[in-house]
Amino acid sequence: MTRRVRLERDTLWLSAADMAALLVGIAVHVVLTQTFTDGDYGRWVLLLDLFYVTATIVDLGLPTLIGRDGERLGSSAHDLVHRCLRIQIRFALPIIAISGILGWLWVGESTAWLVASLILALSACVQILTYAHRAALRALGESRQEAIVRFVDRGVTAAGIVLAAWQFGAHPIALALATFFGPLGAMLIAIRLGEGRLASVEGGVELVTSKAEARQLVNLGLPFLFAAIALVANVRIEKLMLGLLSTTTSVEIFQIAWLAFIAGYAPILSIRAVMLSWFGEVRDDAEKMWYRAKRAAVIIGMASIPGFFVGGLVGMEALIRVFPDYADKATEVFSWMLIAWILALFASVPLTLVQVSERPLRYAAILWSGIVADFIACWVLIPDSHFPAERAAFAAIIGAAVVLIASTIEAWRLHSDVSPPDVAEP
């Protein structure tokens, strides 16, 4: 029997795991800010963000296909996961080598940073390789098991970095190796849990993903790949632009504010991930889709007000207490980023409606429109600014507003031929 996806329950599981992992991650960044000197913390942040973006190419949009169709495929989902992984592994090897060298050429200063760059690129790709089994678990209603995988990823990494910093100080290779152990452990656990759950599923219907060959799967996943890269770049473009147009000190200030921001952004991503499977179950029934969209919008609306005020107060206080050396400027940046957070939260339902439609490439186009707007705003606002990190936060608001407006218009246009039902879902 398949465990049904439930929006509130599954979002709670994933959000709880993300919040716990983020708290652990913040502790790690406290250690890193105290360990690195002479701008090396900013260099480390830029490398991680660059590799998260480039490694997303390995995703190929395939986990999204699994998350969307996994529940309906039934027993065929097992084979789909294996086919997707075989494709992803072939893409991973060249990405590791190319992105590792590019990262070193951008911020590296020694052979140690070259080795660290390659290890960090490997770590990012291994993390991507857990997504297939994670998406399968989520589609089969096992978000609680996916939550375990997420927490292991962050928890083991955190423990490794603390130990490496204690034993070796700011040595980039030791810290990079510590960063690798978390994704490796998460991948092993994801495979174990995912394989066990997939092997027990029976029945299912035949879909286009049931027997698709490698080339066809890549073509089907391509719109979601563009979207996946956009999702990763969307919360990192400001730091990358600060690295290009300003200094690593500005990157460090923005990163500290970003840590508080991303603590609130993680639940948004969890909501979208669960809604993808929840909406995907009824993507062929427009009336049920509208009912679920309306219900999700009400829940998000109710959560937005306490989330904005309580999250803002908690975030400010955390920055002051945890990062006192950066607090004066970081809290100012964070206060502006709260506006970007609320805009991103309200965009969740229309974005997911576009994502599960018959034209998912438009979902990717909407996300990229926000990134382009953000990029242009950074390019205009950051140079010659006396406070570049604050200008980067303004750019984030502009990008989030573009995504909200574009997704709302597109979702309404795609589904305007069906009126939202006034009765509960059958």
Strand and helix layout:
Elements: H1 7-35, H2 40-55, H3 62-73, H4 76-107, H5 111-129, H6 131-139, H7 143-168, H8 172-199, H9 214-234, H10 237-245, H11 248-280, H12 286-322, H13 327-346, H14 348-355, H15 361-381, H16 388-415
Helix pairs in contact: 1-7, 1-11, 2-4, 2-5, 2-9, 2-11, 3-4, 3-6, 3-9, 3-11, 4-5, 5-8, 6-7, 6-8, 7-8, 9-15, 10-11, 10-15, 10-16, 11-12, 11-13, 11-14, 11-16, 12-13, 13-16, 14-15, 14-16, 15-16
Give an overview in words:
By secondary structure, the protein is mainly α. It is built from 16 helices and no strands. It has helices at residues 7-35, 40-55, 62-73, 76-107, 111-129, 131-139, 143-168, 172-199, 214-234, 237-245, 248-280, 286-322, 327-346, 348-355, 361-381, 388-415. The radius of gyration is 21 Å and the shape is globular.
Residues in β-strands, percent: under 5%
Q: Quickly count the helices.
A: 16
Largest beta-sheet characterization = none
Which regions have little confidence, pLDDT < 50, spanning 5+ residues? 418-426
Mean pLDDT: 82
Number of domains: 2
> What is the β-strand count?
0
Q: N- to C-terminal separation?
A: 20 Å
Characterize the overall form.
Answer: globular
H/E element string? HHHHHHHHHHHHHHHH
Helical content stands at: over 70%
Query: Structural class of the helix and strand makeup?
Result: mainly alpha
Instruction: Specify Rg, calculated over alpha carbons.
Output: 21 Å
Which key phrases capture this entry?
426 residues, mainly alpha, 2 domains, 16 helices, 82% helix, globular, disordered C terminus
Give a summary of the structure in a few sentences:
It is built from 16 helices and no strands.
